[in-house]
Amino acid sequence: MTVRGIGSFMMLLIGVAFLIAGSVLTFWFGLPMRRQALASVSWPTTEGRITRSQLQETFGKGGTSRTAYVEYDYALDGREFVGSRVWIGDGYSSSPGTEHRAAVKRYPAGRQVQVYYDPEDPAESVLEPGSTWSGSMLLLMGMVFLSLGCLLVMAVLLPLLFVIVMAASASSGSGGDMRDFDRPPLPSSRSPAGPAGGDRAALRPRPDDGDDGITIG
Length: 217
Description:
Layout (H helix, E strand, L loop, with lengths): L2 H37 L5 E16 L2 E14 L2 E5 L14 H9 L5 E7 L2 E6 L10 H37 L5 H4 L35
Antiparallel strand pairs: 1-2, 1-4, 2-3, 4-5
């Protein structure tokens, strides 16, 4: 296999990997999260209470990342539930974590809150319904991976497809019946001019222009 062939093969593998990763992010995580965020606006509400609220910090070489952990409980039809989502898509860390600091400040422990819950699955709840940029991040990442994967795969397969089409076209163009070139030409259907079919006027004796003075006895 040539170096160019190896490069094309690796590009194809990377493109397929991007397509798989993009499909998982888009259809397994991104779209369901996006749909749930949009649907949460119309969820019913119930009374709840914040039981725990703190800013969690993780120290690493790249700096300190922060995330909010807010826990609350609520009751429905005599059943107790515990939720820990402020908004759909809040399970990420960031630095400096301004949005997480604000969430902890908005929901201190002991505060009474309105809890939005999924009527089909009451264990799914949120304090702030609706779509956010973080809730759409996985969907956007999945679409980017899908686009890159499509471009890489097409960059490998389209030239190959073009070569196959051109080869098939050339093969069909050179596969005609060569017997026509070896066949002698057919005689013309037009008869040559002659006594039977020519100009009879041309065969008539021409009248003498004058008497040449010779008398035959």
